[in-house]
Amino acid sequence: MSEAGINPVLTDHEARELRLLIEQRSGIVFDESRERFLTSRVLEQMERKGLTYGAELLRLVRCSNVEFDSMLERLLTQETSFLRYPALFSAFQQHVLPDLQERKLRDRDHALRILSAGCASGEEPYSIALSVCEAVGPRAELEASIMATDISHEALERAERGVYGRRVLANLSSAQISNYFSKVEDSYEVKPQLRSMVKFAPMNLAQLMYLGRFDCIFCMNVMIYFGAELRSNLIQSFHRYLEPGGYLFLGHAESVANIPVKFNQTIMNGTRLLQKPLDQSACHIRAAGDGR
Ligand SMILES: C[S@@+](CC[C@H](N)C(=O)[O-])C[C@H]1O[C@@H](n2cnc3c(N)ncnc32)[C@H](O)[C@@H]1O
C-alpha cells in the first residue's frame, strides 16, 4: 500500500493491452526483457494518478493524449552524454565535416543541415554543434543548423534550458568546457554560440514527417527500442531525406543490414561511416543482407 493509501493492480491482460497501445503510438516495443520495467513504471504512474485498477489507466490513456504522454514519459530511456561516442565524433570532425565543407563550398551552397532525431535532453545536438565549431571554424562560409527532435516534452524542456551537471560532460576536454559552457554554481550552461545553432521540436518517429533534406542525420540509440518494420521504414525514410553524399549516424547496436537501401560504408577512427552514394543511380535497392 502506498503513502496515498493506494495499492494499484495491473493484470497480465491489461499490461498486454498497454504494451500494444504504446507500440502502436510510439513504436516502442516492450519485449520480455523489459516487461518488469514497464510494470513497475506503470504501477508508479497509477499511484501518482490515484488509480487502483489497470482498466482505469487504460481508459484514461486511450481517451486523453495528455494522459498517454504523461505515462509514456515514465517509460522512456533517455541515457545520453556529450560526445557520447568519442571515436564517432572525431570521425565526424576529421572526415565527415571536411568532406561536406569541401563539396558545399565547391557547389556554392552555404547551408549545412543536420537532424538529431531522438535527441533526449540535448547533449547530442549540442555535441554536433560543438564539433562543427571546432572542425569548420568561425570564419567558414558555412552556416550550420541542427534540428533536434524527440517524443519527450520533458526532455526537450531540459534541452532548451541547456544546463547540465558535470557527469555528462566527462568526455569533453577542459578547454571545450570553458569555451562552450558558462559555469553557474555547480552546473554548466551551454553558451549562445552553440545554442543558436540548434532548434528543438517535438516529433514522434512513429509518425515521421518530412522536414526537408539533410546533410547528416543522427538517430542514435533510438531505433533499438522499435520493432523491425518501423526500423526498416525509418532507415528508408532517412535515406530519402539525406542529400546525395550525406551521412547517417546510428548507435553501436544499430545497423542498416537487411534494409533495402544503399549506403557506402567506410571505417574511420574505428567508426563505421554510412554515406548515401553521391551518384543517385547507385542508390538502387540491393539484395537483402548487403550493406552490413
Ligand atoms: C537513449 S536516448 C538516445 C539519446 C541520444 N540520441 C544518444 O544516443 O545519446 C533515446 C531517445 O529516444 C526518444 N524516443 C523514443 N521513442 C521515440 C519516438 N517514437 N519518437 C521520437 N523520439 C523517441 C526518447 O525519448 C529518448 O530521448
Bound molecules: S-adenosylmethionine
Radius of gyration: 21 Å
Proportion of residues in extended strands: 15-25%
Major beta sheet summary: 7 strands, mixed
User: Would you report the number of β strands?
Assistant: 10
State mean pLDDT (0 to 100 scale).
Answer: 93
Named CATH architecture of the largest domain:
3-Layer(aba) Sandwich
CATH class division of the largest domain:
Alpha Beta
Describe the structure.
- With 292 residues, the chain is α/β, with parallel strands linked by helices.
- It folds into 2 domains: 12-73, no CATH class; 86-283, 3-Layer(aba) Sandwich (Rossmann fold).
- The chain has 10 helices and 10 strands.
- The strands form 2 sheets. It has a 7-stranded mixed sheet. The protein has a 3-stranded antiparallel sheet with strand order 3-5-4.
- Strand 9 and strand 10 (271-275) form a beta hairpin.
- Helix 1 packs parallel to helix 3 and helix 5 packs across helix 6.
- The radius of gyration is 21 Å and the shape is globular.
- It starts with 11 loop residues before the first helix and ends in a 17-residue tail after the last strand.
- Bound molecules: S-adenosylmethionine.
- Residues 26-28, 76-80, 84, 118-120, 124, 150-152, 155, 203-206, 220-222, 225, 251 line the site of S-adenosylmethionine.
